[in-house]
Amino acid sequence: MTPEAEAREPRYVLLLNGANFACEVLQALRQAGFTHALLVLPEYPPAARPGAQPVELDAHRPQSRLQQLAGEIPLAYAPELLQQSCARLIRQRSIDFLLVACWPYLIGPAILASVGKAALNLHPSLLPAYRGADPVGRQIELGERRLGVSLHLLSQRFDAGDIVARASLPSLGDNPDRETIEREAARLGAGLFIDALKGYDAGWQLQPQSALTAVPD
User: Fold this and answer.
1) Which of 85, 117, 190, 207 is deepest in the core (most CB within 10 A)?
2) What is the pLDDT of residues 194-206, one digit of tens each?
């Protein structure tokens, strides 16, 4: 590696949908001074829904809150059938770290191999508890009081990769609503991600989920 490459700031790509937790993660990272090299959404832009011919990844801005948060960050669309195109785009932009915050399909080996250092997911629960698509909703339904967030490596099983870091949320009072849980989990998770990037060169102390309980030691 050249001195110029060593001195270069790490480049990040964030894969997210328009869900509240995803938007909160993006906002927390931007407030911390992190400007991603690329944002990727899992759907086609509304004006280019798949018809007879597939479309290539394109830079458009979605509507709603995500549009406002994206600002000047380039944005691409990567439906499941275009994972190879997404991987090529990530390689072309020399991305070091990939972070997922709410994603509807299993990310394949091509995308995982396209980043230079690590592909990670932020999950708003204390894994291995509450895997799946709606961990916050399930925790609210079951009256879970041990809330938290986990940062883990992506793998070929949903929410099952080795844990890089996880942390419990402070008490949010009785019966916190979804928005409050997601906002606080996103803020805490963004901090875990930032700390993980700073500690990457020193080596992460990865923990298999099979060795963990629902509450951090």
Assistant:
1) 190
2) 999 999 999 999 9
